[in-house]
Design brief:
The complex is a heterodimer of chains A (about 900) and B (about 375).
Chain A: E1 2-9, E2 18-20, E3 27-31, H1 38-50, E4 72-79, E5 82-89, E6 95-100, E7 103-106, H2 107-118, H3 134-139, E8 140-141, H4 149-164, H5 176-190, H6 199-245, H7 247-394, H8 399-422, E9 424-429, E10 436-438, E11 441-443, E12 446-451, E13 455-459, E14 463-467, H9 474-495, H10 500-527, H11 532-555, H12 568-617, H13 620-656, H14 659-698, H15 702-763, E15 767-771, E16 777-782, E17 785-788, H16 794-814, E18 820-824, H17 832-846, E19 850-855, E20 869-870, H18 871-878
Parallel strand pairs in A: 3-19, 3-20, 8-18, 18-19
Antiparallel strand pairs in A: 1-2, 1-4, 4-5, 5-6, 6-7, 9-12, 10-11, 10-13, 13-14, 15-16, 16-17
Chain B: E1 3-7, H1 21-44, E2 49-52, H2 64-73, E3 81-83, H3 96-103, E4 110-112, E5 117-121, E6 126-131, E7 156-162, E8 164-165, E9 178-179, H4 183-186, E10 191-195, E11 201-204, E12 207-209, E13 225-230, E14 239-244, E15 249-257, H5 260-272, E16 277-287, H6 289-305, E17 308-318, H7 322-328, H8 332-348, H9 351-372
Parallel strand pairs in B: 1-2, 2-3, 3-4, 6-7, 7-10, 8-9, 10-12, 15-16, 16-17
Antiparallel strand pairs in B: 1-13, 5-6, 11-12, 13-14
Helix pairs in contact in B: 5-6, 8-9
Classes of the chains: A alpha+beta (about 900), B alpha/beta (about 375).
């Protein structure tokens, strides 16, 4: 199909007629800026095909504000060697005319003809939407929808299949899809989507299970019933037999026999016990008599033992008596030794006292000597101290006053010197006989005097000379000097010295005396710290002590030097030893004495005892008693022997009767009787129970019920099997049909895949794009990448979308269908490299299909190798 | 000249599986009618007594209603009936018989032979030597004591027993409840009336199985009869007459279809059967689609005509011919599906494939018919 010319009028901004002429069979690049009417042209083409001419939903075609407009589109195109001319007007003048070659169609016929040619459908009412666009929807790409390939393919589905039928005509089935639908709907009556039973089939399955359950239950009950019947038969038999045989009576008889035998044994045991008691008594009696006899016979034996005891006591006593002298001797010895030790100890003590006194005497003498020496020295130091004190008293002077005096002296000297310098010096050298009187004092010979005051020199002979010393300070100096002199004199007087030097001398002497006093004091302290009086009293004490010691020593007797006296410690130890030896000897002696008396006592007792027994033994009563007892004993022994024989006999009798078994027999027979009767009673009871039960169960007609139930089950099962087989058959049929149909689809897949690969290899040399069973591009793989188209970037999706559409166009062309590709500003998201590849693809596709490419970016498409058509320019031309 | 009717194996209370509910009910009803028929025959032939040789009831626990209806059905004949417990209704401690008595359903003229022994029918001059089963199964010959039973002078000695005559019946018969083959002779019986074998069968001149009066299985030929036995005097050879009593005839056919004529013959035979037939068909071999269509139509007609018709066709393969497929206009992939199903059916004896093919053929046929209209 090749679009050759389009003309529009009264359509949006094209109020005036606009003609797009001279369209090429291959690629056509139509460009214009925004608002230039590019999109309107696309809209016009779509409206010419998709919109019903009588549609009222196409107001968007109307020029703005022109309610009287009749938007009109005229298209000229060529298909299969015939030229088609379409004129379609909307709104104010609703018309559609189609001329194909020489044939003309109008109105609806014309529109159906177009829809059939291109493979799309009209909306039942309102504006045409994507789902109506069919194959053109796939090939005519609106701005910004290039990537939405899946929807477009879905909407084109039916048209595509019928369009492609001619390619695969030999395998497509007429009405196959209807058949599949029929099979599916029939299958779905019986089976769910996942192949589980539903509806009647499910109900039958459940019923069947229910029947099985009921049958099982009935069978169980029938079985129980039969068991009970069998039980009843057996019980009846047993019961009747037992009634006839009455085995409990037999047991009862045995029981009574056993009881009688047991009673016999019990009597024997009673006798046995009585005899045993008698025997016991005899034995007791025997024992008592025996004791009596033994007692009587015992007297002689006792007598002998008493005699022996007496002898032993005598012997013991004599042995003890023999020991007495030795014990006494040891005591005397010990006493002597003790006295000797005591004496030694006293001597040693005396000696030690003397030695101590002698030592004291020596020490006291020494002490007295030292004190006497110290006292002599102390007296000497005391004297020195007195002298020093005397010295000090004599020269006592206040050092501070001396210091002041000294200062005053030196000040006076200084002032004197100064006054001499400023004083009027009057020197004179008089002739030996000449005399002068100065201030009433005669001057003779030669001399010099300082004059500080107005003086009167009388020269005898001459008269009187007044001399007034000059200088301002003279008066103050003379006053100061005078004060100082007076001060000095005062101080000297106070100190009691004549001069400063004297004062100094006295100070020095005073200080020396002080030092000497200190020294003497120290010495005195060293020999008599507490003073001399103390020392004297110490001396007196020492002397009196000494005297006392001397007198003591004299009072103490002098030991005999010939005697060997041991040391005191040794003597005391020996004394202690002797003391304890004496103690022991004394206690031994006491023990011996007491033993002696005890032995004497024992000997006396033994003697008395022996005497008493000896008397008794000889008595005639005792002889008689002993004879009687012996006779009695012999009788008793005979009786015992008889009794024992009788007991043994009876014991054997009892043992042979086995009383323990007899007892068990009684218990056993008793139990048997009870149990047999009980069993029979139980049988009777169970018989009645079972009869009642069976009557009740029998009335239910269980087996007949079971029969009927089995019949019902059989029917249900039959119907179930039918449906089961039908369900399986339908399932199989559906699967087979689907499988075969899919196989058919796959046959269409191959050529589409081929065309797709053709374009894809240009864009992504290493990539592959799988076409799925719905003929949609599905899995995309590139190197290690694997994913769905929808996961790619927008740009890549748009490119994939476009090449898929072109692949479809190729496929449709092969099937002999018209292909017109319209692209409205597509690939705006592609980078320049990809765009370059896409241009190659478009150029290639344009060799087989007419492509109208609308764009507002003509510069991007300059290298397509086709002359661009400028809408603006065409407008001018049209006008 | 004593004359009595010998019957057995009524199996009352049996329900019929494998049938449609309605058919089953009719078959059950026919068994009650059979008892009435027996009573009527006994009257018609002026019989002195009716002897039932066991298995009156199919089970011990049948419903009270069944028990009552059975005894009610005997009312037509007022003479003595002697009923013997068989293996299905053995005289156990508690049995269908004790229940019947408790229900008060047993009429005066019906004698229940619940203990081994002799029942003397004084008026009729008949001594009935009874060997009832008192357990479900016995392994000894219960008729053994017959030899020791004394009977009044001039009375006929008629044995009544239920079990298998040793060595004469096919092995498949339960070997329990054995009966010596020479029992009649050994025990000086004028006649031995037997039950257990559901077809009418003569063992010797004095020993017969009467069979069941109304067939209830497809096996056992010669079912559906009663015997009229006439013995002129004690020791005389009995005259035995078999009378039909059955209402329905049961037919079980196993047919293999190979060629078109096989099918035609089968349909002819089917057409020839009376309406009272109960038919069980099992078809094997193969049939064309056209043939199957014919068959289905014929079966549909037969189903309506007979008491019951069941046809098992799972062994019958569908073999669509090229003409079949052409007639169905199964083109394109549908044609492939037909081919695939046919292969599966033949290759693996696949029932599902067979059914699928049948369904597909049906659908296609319907479509053709729609188009045709």
């Amino acid at each position: 199909m090749k679009l050759q010319r389009m003309r529009i009028e009264q359509l949006r901004q094209f109020r005036k007629p606009f003609v797009l002429d001279n369209l090429q069979p291959g690629l056509n690049l139509i460009h214009g800026p925004n608002e230039s009417g590019k999109s309107t042209l696309v809209r016009a083409i779509r409206a010419a095909f998709f919109e019903r001419y009588r549609s009222t939903a196409v107001d968007d075609l109307r020029p703005w504000g022109d309610s009287a407009a009749a938007p009109t589109v005229e298209l000229d195109f060529e298909h299969e060697g015939r030229s088609w001319h379409l004129t379609k007007s909307f709104l104010q003048r609703k018309r559609c005319d189609l001329k194909v070659g020489t044939e003309t169609y109008s109105e609806d016929d014309a529109e159906e003809k177009l829809a059939e040619l291109l493979g799309y459908q009209y909306p039942k009412r309102g504006a045409s939407k994507a789902e109506h666009w069919g194959i053109p929807g796939l090939l005519w790409v609106e701005q910004g929808t290039g990537q939405d390939i899946e929807q477009a393919i879905e909407h084109a589905g039916d048209h595509l299949k019928s369009a492609l039928n001619s390619m695969v005509g030999e395998v497509a089935s007429s009405g196959g899809d209807d058949l599949i639908e029929t099979v599916r709907s029939q299958r779905d009556i019986l089976l769910t989507g996942t192949g589980k039973p539903r509806g009647d089939y499910l109900k039958l399955e459940k019923d069947r299970a229910q029947y099985e359950l009921e049958i099982e239950e009935l069978k169980e009950r029938v079985h129980k019933y039969q068991e009970q019947v069998d039980r009843l038969g057996k019980l009846t038999h047993d019961f009747d037999q037992a009634e006839a045989e009455r085995p409990w009576e037999d047991a009862q008889r045995h029981l009574e026999e056993a009881r009688a035998r047991y009673q016999q044994v019990e009597r024997l045991e009673q006798q046995q016990n009585q005899e045993k008691a008698t025997l016991n008594q005899l034995q007791q009696n025997h024992r008592l008599l025996q004791q009596n006899k033994e007692h009587l016979e015992g007297l002689s034996r006792q007598l002998e033992s008493r005699k022996a005891e007496l002898d032993r006591a005598e012997h013991d006593l004599s042995v003890a008596q023999a020991q007495t002298p030795a014990v006494t001797g040891r005591l005397t010895e010990a006493r002597t030794a003790y006295e000797q030790a005591e004496k030694q100890r006293k001597l040693a003590g005396l000696l030690q006292t003397r030695q101590r006194l002698e030592q004291d005497l020596k020490r006291l003498e020494q002490q007295q000597r030292v004190i006497s020496q110290n006292l002599a020295k102390a007296r000497e130091y005391q004297q020195q101290l007195e002298q020093a004190r005397q010295q000090a008293r004599e020269n006592r002077i206040d050092p501070e006053l001396v210091k002041k005096l000294r200062a005053t002296g030196s000040q006076l000297n200084e002032e004197t010197i100064r006054s001499e310098t400023i004083a009027t010096r009057l020197s004179w050298q008089l002739d030996a006989d000449a005399s002068l009187t100065l201030n009433n004092e005669p001057l003779v010979g030669q001399g010099e005097q300082q004059l500080l005051e107005e003086s009167t020199l009388v020269i005898p002979g001459v008269g009187t000379l007044g001399i007034t010393p000059g200088g301002e300070e003279l008066a103050s100096t003379r006053r100061k000097l005078k004060a100082l002199e007076e001060n000095l004199a005062e101080q000297l007087k106070t100190l009691g010295v004549a001069s400063v030097e004297q004062a100094e001398e006295r100070l020095s002497a005073y200080e020396n005396a002080g030092r000497a006093q200190k020294h003497a004091e120290d010495l005195l302290k060293s020999v008599a710290p507490a003073g001399i009086e103390q020392l004297v009293s110490e001396q007196n004490e020492a002397e009196s002590e000494l005297e006392k010691a001397k007198s003591q020593l004299e009072a103490t007797p002098k030991p005999n030097p010939k005697e060997d006296v041991p040391a005191l410690e040794e003597a005391e130890a020996a004394f202690a030893r002797a003391g304890s030896a004496l103690d022991k000897a004394e206690s031994d002696d006491r023990a011996h004495q007491s033993r002696m008396s005890a032995l004497k006592q024992a000997r006396d007792n033994a003697k008395t005892e022996w005497q008493r027994l000896a008397d008794e033994e000889k008595s005639p009563e005792r002889q008689e008693q002993l004879r009687q007892i012996t006779t009695h004993l012999a009788n008793l022994e005979k009786q015992q022997a008889e009794l024992q024989a009788s007991l043994e006999r009876r014991e054997r009798e009892i043992r042979e009767a086995r009383p323990e078994f007899l007892k068990q027999d009684i218990e056993r027979y008793q139990n048997a009787v009870n149990q047999l009767r009980q069993t029979q009673e139980n049988r009777g009871r169970e018989l009645r129970d079972i009869k009642v039960r069976l009557e009740a169960w029998g009335a239910e007609g269980l087996e007949e019920q079971l029969n009927e139930k089995e019949a019902e089950y059989d029917q249900c099962n039959r119907r179930y099997q039918e449906l089961h087989r039908r369900a399986q058959a339908l399932d199989l049929l559906l699967n087979l049909l689907m499988e075969k149909r899919q196989a058919l689809t796959r046959r269409l897949q191959a050529p589409l895949q081929k065309h797709l690969n053709h374009f894809l290899s240009v864009l992504f040399p290493e990539a592959s794009l799988e076409v799925d069973e719905q003929l949609r591009p599905g899995t995309f793989s590139r190197g290690t990448e694997l994913g769905q188209i929808t996961e790619l970037s927008f740009g890549a999706r748009e490119q994939m979308g476009l090449i898929s559409r072109l692949a479809y166009a190729d496929l449709l062309r092969e099937a002999g269908r018209p292909t017109l590709v319209i692209l409205d500003d597509t690939l705006v998201h592609s980078d320049s490299d990809r765009l370059e590849d896409m241009k190659r693809i478009l150029f290639d596709a344009a060799s087989r299909h007419q492509i109208l490419l609308f764009t507002c970016h003509p510069e991007k498409w300059q290298d397509l190798g086709v002359p661009p058509v400028d809408i603006e320019a065409s407008k001018e031309l049209s006008a | 000249m004593p004359k009595f009717l010998h019957t057995a194996d009524w199996q009352m209370g049996r329900a019929f599986t494998r049938f449609e509910t309605e058919d089953g009910a009719a078959l059950v009803e026919a068994r009650f009618e059979a008892i009435e028929t027996l009573a009527q025959l006994a009257n018609e032939h002026q019989c002195d007594a009716v002897l039932v040789a066991g298995d009156v009831f199919d089970a011990q626990t049948v419903s009270d209603r069944t028990i009552r209806r059975v005894f009610n059905a005997t009312k037509g004949f007022a003479g003595p009936w002697v009923m013997l417990p068989g293996n299905h209704d053995a005289a156990l401690a508690e049995s269908v018989w004790t229940r019947a008595r408790r229900l008060g359903a047993v009429p005066e003229n019906v004698h229940l032979a619940l203990q081994p022994g002799v029942i003397d029918l004084e008026a009729q001059g008949l001594s009935i030597l009874c060997a009832p089963l008192t357990q479900r199964h016995t392994y000894g010959d219960l008729t053994e004591p017959f030899s020791g039973y004394e009977t009044p002078e001039g009375f006929l000695r008629v044995g009544l027993a239920h079990g298998s005559v040793q060595g004469l019946l096919p092995d498949e018969i339960d070997s329990t409840n054995p009966i010596a083959p020479n029992r009649a002779k050994a025990s000086r019986l004028d006649y031995l009336a037997l039950g257990d074998w559901h077809g009418t069968k003569q063992i010797d001149e004095r020993t017969w199985y009467s069979g069941t009066p109304e067939p209830e299985r497809f096996r056992n030929n010669e079912a559906g009869n009663a015997l009229i036995v006439e013995v002129s005097e004690p020791g005389a050879t009995p005259t035995v007459t078999s009378l039909p009593t059955g209402r329905y005839q049961w037919h079980q056919w196993r047919e293999t279809l190979a060629v078109q004529s096989d099918l035609e013959q089968l349909l002819e035979r089917l057409n020839a059967l009376p309406e009272s037939a109960v038919v069980d068909l099992r078809l094997e071999g193969s049939v064309t689609l056209a043939g199957e269509e014919t068959l289905l139509k014929a079966l549909s007609v037969a189903e309506a005509r007979f008491r019951s018709l069941r046809c098992e066709r799972s062994g019958l393969q569908l073999a669509p011919t090229d003409e079949d497929i052409a007639a169905l206009k199964a083109d394109g992939y549908v044609g492939e599906v037909v081919e695939s199903l046919r292969e599966r059916q033949e290759g693996a004896q696949d029932d599902v494939a067979r059914d699928a093919l049948a369904i597909l053929a049906g659908l296609l046929r319907e479509r053709e018919q729609e188009v045709g209209q």
